[in-house]
Amino acid sequence: MTARRKKQLTSWGLTSLTYAVLIVMLSPILWLIASSLQTRGQLASGDYNLLHPTVSAFKQMWESVDFGKYLTNSLIICTAAALLATAFAASAGYALARLPFRGQKAFSVGIVGTQLVPGSMFLLPVFLGFIWLKQNTPIHLFDTHIGMILIYTAFFTPVAIWFMRYFFLAIPPELEEAAMVDGCTRFGAFWRVVLPSAAPGLAATFVYAFLLAWDELLFVTALTASRAETIPVGIHNFIGNYSEEYAQLMAAGVVSTIPVMLAFFATQRWLVQGLTAGAVKG
Amino acid sequence: MSTHSITPAQNAAPPDLPPTDVPPTGRGRGRGRRRSRRSGRNLAYWLIAPALVFMVLVHLIPSAAGVALSFKNLNTFTFSQLFGAPWTGFKNYDAILFDSANPLHSGFVDAARNTVIYTAATVTGTLAGGLGIALLLARQFPGRRLVRTLMLAPYVVPSFVVAVLWGFMWQSDSGIINKVLVDYTGILHDRPTWLLGHNSLLAIIIPSIWRGIPLAMLIFLAGLETMPRELHEAAAIDGAGPWRRFRYITLPLLRPLIAVQLLFGVIYSTYQFTIPYVMLGNNPGPDADLIMTLIVRQSFSNNLIGFGAAASTLLMLVMLIWVAVWFRAFRRDLEAS
What we know:
The complex is a heterodimer. Chain A is mostly helical. Chain A has 14 helices and no strands. Helix content of chain A is about 80%, strand content about 0%. The mean pLDDT of chain A is about 90.
């Protein structure tokens, strides 16, 4: 065997291996989709009929639990929290990227430091605080959209700041310098020139915060009771009530994955930059 | 960063330079710069204010209150007093750490052991898998862009869906995993029970790795793509095989990326709650209970809020120690990058 032929074979082998790994990585997702399109009986017996899919599980799931309620709650809470977190992050991230200020280092360390605190650590006081507010004041945060939005905004603002800082650093400073020469104030330059050119970064940050909020279970389990419950709580309740209804459970899984999949792949290009920038550039 | 460099540059001027060498316009310009710098600084404070207020209100104050709660006797009987529950000193800590007659103590020891195993296995598996796939994807081959995009899919499946899906796949009788392992390939002879007993820790580790791999892959791939090709080419000419090139060129250059992912991977895995809670339920038993599931169960099902706060504080202390250890181990890499 010549050296060239050997090299070709290796290359072919590695490519096949890559595709094999891809299939293994994707197979659970394909199994999720396939199972959601079968009946309960087919899932129990294993006689899948992939040529004759049925959406009956989706219909049943929608009726047996009030899935529409959970979906609406998730959409409202996650959208509002992600918007607020992105807005706060855009403003704080710009300050970190461009305007040196006293205490900058402390602020940066604080942002990373928030990640060190276990969720349960501040969940317990927040839980007690919400109950106290409910008992002693007219402010109702327990089991309300507002309460969850406040929590998630605070929760995901630190990571969002880190994202936005990176996107601002990637914008050439000459852009705002030119705007300031033309008579813009620093804030005017930020508002009219920098923010519009950071639009992809804003979108990516929004999607990332949305993804994180969509996936959050610990806080929403503890801080809601019935009205403001989101999809993860709905699914957890469903398991408790209908533990053997796997077709419906898979259908619920598909429905709760679609929105985040769409959002992720629509902004993938910028989101990937934000996700890797932190690790690669330090 | 341009304004930032002004002061150091001025300080760096040779000290024997007479002050008259400063051009006459320098003072005026300096004052103007200083004013714009001060206004920039004021603007900076305005810009960070909203985020700061939120972080202080929802992160800092509650975290401090969490530490305070750990010194309180807050349980079912005192729950109605909320923050006014009686102080109890180090009793919660004592019960967790040293009181071997207390069931909370043995529960905590089991959960701590499981958490260490879960975190070590998940982080190792995620980094190894991510690096392996990144190496495969760093080559040129037909369909590379599409494969890279599709590889990200597991990362986008929400954790609670991951838990539900794998919980279904792990089913002993009807689950696809036992079907493949026992019925189709015959690798195993009897059907293991995955979601109970000593297999259950593995049942949460594998899905966690599966979901974590795409992010690790992305980070390693970004590192591999910025790696200078010349090093590899020069080493290949000198006769270094692929393994040696990987061991002595690729791996050392990826060290900073491994360091960062280790730091956050350990924290993230230790605080993982959704996957174990949804897959194994509120009480997974001594074989798979983790610190986080233990804290949540004792705090909310059994109303042992003081215990939960003390365990959370201990958990945070352990993470602080981990950061210190990490910093010592990888300080050189941080300076190099």
